[in-house]
Specification:
194 residues, mainly beta, Lipocalin, eight-stranded antiparallel beta barrel, 15% helix, 42% strand, disulfide bond, Lipocalin_ApoD, pigment binding
Amino acid sequence: MWRLYLLKFLATASAQIPSLGWCPDFQAMANFNMDRFLGTWYEAERYFTVSELGTRCVTTHYTATPEGRILITNEITNSITGFKRLMEGHLQMVGREGEGRVLVKYSSLPLPYDFEYSILDTDYDTYAVMWACSGIGPVHTQNTWLLSRERLPSMSVMQNAYAVLDKFKISRTFFQKTNQADCQFYQHRLPQMN
């Protein structure tokens, strides 16, 4: 049994910032509107993660199908090889009604992978702040992403995102800027909505 806990901890710690203590009790955004959140988001900054080491041009597309499913596609370019990989899956809202908590189920990876995170705040038009935390006993790992609707956001947009970090007392120490220069993105086709 302890081996299972150790494996889970190592898997999450390798992808996020490990810390002592329990996960903070951050409340996801209330009255979250997924329809307004749909579309393309560019990763502006993120906590260091091993899975994104050596990557650039990170973009996420949220689309709704006519059946009401929310699809997610992450585009990630390797900084050294220039190869682009896509991570595809679907998203479902979790938690209380209207709360910005989501569960993403990635289906395009060799092993299915589920990932839960919270949208702490967004204005839907310029920035979004996403956060995740998982813990085992008194040790937890956190990850935070600052997203923008623009590939190269203005300083005022970033100041709005930083204000959310300050509100939740999320340290900026581990943030890395995501290189979005000279990116070539796939033409992402949104499904026809009837």
